[in-house]
Design a protein that fits this description.
The chain is mainly alpha-helical. The chain contains four helices and no strands.
Length: 62
């Protein structure tokens, strides 16, 4: 999980977009659940809030 969190933070610092971070996590092979956990950790979101963001993201919308 630390790897996913580090990746999210790195990508977010580069572009400031949660959407891009979610897409990059998916591209690197992380699952939807991994992404939800990362959002919960880095943004202090509830599981419901993080789940909604991931499910509505372009990366996971298909």
């Amino acid at each position: 999980m630390e790897e996913a969190i580090a990746l999210f933070k790195k990508v977010y610092q580069q572009n400031g977009s949660t959407e891009v971070c979610i897409a990059e996590l998916k591209r690197m092979g992380f699952t939807q659940m991994d992404t939800i956990r990362v959002l919960m950790e880095v943004s202090s979101l509830s599981v419901v809030e993080a789940d909604e963001i991931v499910h509505k993201s372009l990366a996971w919308s298909n």
